[in-house]
Amino acid sequence: MNPPLQTVQDRQRLLLEQSDSMVFKTVDPDPDLNIHFYLPDSHTEGPPRPVILFFFSSGWDRGHVTQFAPQALHFADRGAVTGLVEYRTDASHGANPVQAMQDGRSAVRWVRENAERLNIDPERVTVAGGRAGGLIAGTLLLSRKLQDDPDDNTATDGKPNCAMLFSSMIDIDKDAYGVDRFASVGEAKSYGLSQFITFSQRPLIIFHGTADRFIVYKDVEHFAKKLKRKKNVCEFFPFDGRDENFYNLNVDPFSYEAVLEQCDRFLVENGMLNEKGDGEEDARLISWRENDF
Predict the structure, then answer these.
(1) Which of 136, 131, 116, 113 has the alpha carbon at shortest distance from 53?
(2) Which one is predicted more confidently, 31 or 289?
(3) Is 130 helix (H, G, I), strand (E, B) or coil?
(4) Which sign does the torsion angle of CA 102, 105, 106, 107 carry?
(5) DSSP E strands: which ranges in 167-212?
(6) Thinking of the domain 5-290, which architecture would CATH place it in?
(7) In Å, how far are 70, 115, 248 from 245, measured between CA atoms?
(8) Domain extents for the chain?
(9) Confidence of residue 28 (pLDDT cuts 50, 70, 90)
(10) Residue closest to 255 by CA, chosen among 232, 276, 239
């Protein structure tokens, strides 16, 4: 049974109240776009922190920016600056997928341009996302083909250093989930991730359920194998019998914990996160769970 709408809205509001929201993009006359940051304790002290940006799941039409708040809280307590990124959708801005991907590039550039303000390391920028948000993250990592937003400062690198994909869109053909949001099938295909595979790509980790009803598991597995054949760092974790939302805390807590453990290890091994210190706990995440937010 799905929770009542008001309960979901209250939970989202409370999660955003815990964050530091900063406008990263103005879209006149439509609403500005924010990154909702969870900041480590004393984040302005000491050496620059890694940063992780999360892009919520959507079919390019709508979604909840707070979807990855549990993951963001975990990694903030691990010492990273984490952000939940708003991007334009059809419901929020009458936008198309290309504009949504441009927003992802703008967000990466914005955190690098504000590295001193946030005390983050511009060479340790990780992006993560689910479904369409996963395609945004994958496109940011693998492709330089994406047309830049005209208002972006293109002198700032918009390519992240690492990516994590959850039940992500990979390639888009005429029957694919979300294809109808593009201007044409041809445009949709041009953003399929498989065509961007080359040698020397930056590290990528992928999680996908074998029972996903919308994005065929075998296609994702094939994509991961092609990346590895090009000698790229690509880890692929199938989740047997799981459908599209297994990595969400409120859907499957067991799978959520398993995914989070692998993400933490992967980021540490690839220099995107500091190793966990003795006795370090996810204090804010524990509080978040205890209050059922």
Answers:
(1) 136
(2) 31
(3) strand
(4) positive
(5) 204-209
(6) 3-Layer(aba) Sandwich (3.40)
(7) 14, 33, 6
(8) 5-290
(9) confident
(10) 239
Contact predicate 246/255, CB 8 Å? yes
pLDDT at 175 over 90: no
Could you give the CA distance from residue 258 to residue 154 in angstroms, rounded to a whole number? Answer: 38
Residue indicated by tokens 């994509």: 223
Looking at the DSSP assignment, which residues form a beta bridge with residue 237? 207
Tens digits of residue pLDDT in 257-285: 999 999 999 999 999 999 986 445 555 45
- In this structure, the chain runs to a length of 293
Of residues 1 and 24, more confidence is placed in: 24
Q: Indicate the SS3 state at residue 154.
A: coil
Rounded to a whole number of angstroms, the distance between the first and last alpha carbons of the chain is: 17
Among candidate residues 195, 110, 197, 203, the one with its CA nearest the CA of residue 157: 110
Centre a 10 Å sphere on the Cβ of residue 147 and count the other Cβ atoms it contains: 10
pTM, 2 dp: 0.92
Q: In what order do the strands lie in the sheet with 81-85?
A: 20-25, 33-38, 81-85, 49-55, 120-130, 162-166, 204-209, 234-239
CA angle, 111 as apex, 106 and 115 as ends, to 5°?
150
More confident residue, 146 or 7: 146
Q: pLDDT: is 276 or 129 the higher one?
A: 129
Hey, which bits of 100-240 come out as E strands?
120-130, 162-166, 204-209, 234-239
**Other Cβ atoms within 10 Å of 84 Cβ, number:** 25
Which tens digit of pLDDT belongs to each residue from 66-99? Answer: 999 999 999 999 999 999 999 999 999 999 999 9
From CA 22, how far away is CA 35, in angstroms rounded? Answer: 5
Task: Over range 107-122, report the average pLDDT.
Answer: 97
Helix (H, G, I), strand (E, B) or coil at 287: helix
Three-state SS for 77?
helix
